[in-house]
Amino acid sequence: PSTLYIVATPIGNLGDITLRAIETLKNVDLIAAEDTRHSGLLLQHFAIEGRLYPLHDHNEQQKTEALIEKLKSGLSIALISDAGTPLINDPGYHLVKACYQNQITVVPVPGACAAITALSVSGLPTDRFCYEGFLPAKSKARIDLLTQLKQEPRTVVFYESTHRILDSLQDMLNVYGPEKIVVLAKELTKSWETIIHSPLKDLIEWLKADDNRRKGEFVLIVEGYDKVNEQEIDPDAIKLLNRLQQEIP
Ligand code: SAM
């Protein structure tokens, strides 16, 4: 009672649901979901007869109060999103925060998350990374953000949609140069799963070669800034080096 479960669901392949997720969804009094129609199908697939309650980005703040009242009255609630882990670019932040303010227990039921799934097969350093979610929709804001991140030494993870994938990669090319290593992970766990690890210039060529390649859901992972290899060498230093080389016998 009085527990909010944050339950991860699959990001494509339904086989990725966990035993604990099914058990939790079967046992709670109420399931708060982003899209009740979409989640209804998931529940149906696993023969879960849960009561659904809509909670999306636009109404989360106002629905939080009602959900907190239900939790306080002793109901247990599970929060799920359309795919993957709730709160990772999905609703739930206001609700979880409010639980702490109201002494309500929050229990994680972990599972799939596109960012972590992509990172695990990226072939880029994973000891330190940062997550940036979706890049801004407008090119100017996108370039500003990419420029701010230019000297970020950690691996950087972005989410991207089918509409902007090419524009975002073009902006990355302009800011980071053609040789920057980027990993594109699309349709993870689904039939058309594709993971490409290559310099930006080749990645863009690959994407342009076939319209179908731009369709689907994407994670983009950018190699961190490497001080030793990427630092632009001071032109004065190069001049000095050349002179020294000429003078040394
Ligand atoms: N909560 C989700 C998670 O845990 O990853 C993310 C939800 S966010 C609204 C949706 C975005 O996640 C997509 O636009 C895409 O960038 C990424 N994504 C979700 N599923 C994916 C998949 N199967 N393959 C690649 N990217 C995926």
UniProtKB/TrEMBL annotation:
The EC number(s) this enzyme carries: 2.1.1.198
Underlying gene: rsmI
Record's function text: Catalyzes the 2'-O-methylation of the ribose of cytidine 1402 (C1402) in 16S rRNA.
Catalytic activity: cytidine(1402) in 16S rRNA + S-adenosyl-L-methionine = 2'-O-methylcytidine(1402) in 16S rRNA + S-adenosyl-L-homocysteine + H(+)
Chief localization: cytoplasm
Keyword Cytoplasm: yes
Membrane-crossing segments per the record: none
GO CC annotations on file: cytoplasm
Family recorded in the similarity comment: Belongs to the methyltransferase superfamily. RsmI family.
Subcellular location: Cytoplasm
Cross-referenced SUPFAM superfamilies: Tetrapyrrole methylase
Keywords for the protein's UniProt record, in alphabetical order: Cytoplasm, Methyltransferase, rRNA processing, S-adenosyl-L-methionine, Transferase
Stored Pfam families: RsmI_C, TP_methylase
Molecular function GO terms recorded: rRNA (cytosine-2'-O-)-methyltransferase activity
Record-linked CDD domains: RsmI
Protein name: Ribosomal RNA small subunit methyltransferase I
Record-annotated Tetrapyrrole methylase domain positions: 3-203
